[in-house]
Amino acid sequence: SSIRKMTRTMCIMGETDEQELASIPEEMKAHVDTLIRKEEWHGAVAIDPTQLWSSFLGLVGSPATIRRQIAAYQAAGVNEMRLIFPDAPRLQSIQRFAKEFIVQNDLSCL
Description:
This protein has 110 residues and is of the alpha/beta class. It contains five helices and three strands; from the N terminus they run βαααβαβα.
């Protein structure tokens, strides 16, 4: 038997990275901003905002960005991901994820 590596993370996907960053709920932004201040990330290095948010929230951005983020998890040895969709009661993000990654049989990055 082999050891499987699993992670659980949020998935917030939009048409573009900028659109998705703008749609993050204010309470999440406030929480992450607090974490960023504690870690003293701000001003230390020029970091892509999508990368910064992803480091705290998980999969955030456009489908192309999320594909790259999933590939990074795979490169780290993760074999299973359990995704949390913060707007799950509305089903839009789950349906979009299914359309982008599952319906097209693009399971290579899952």
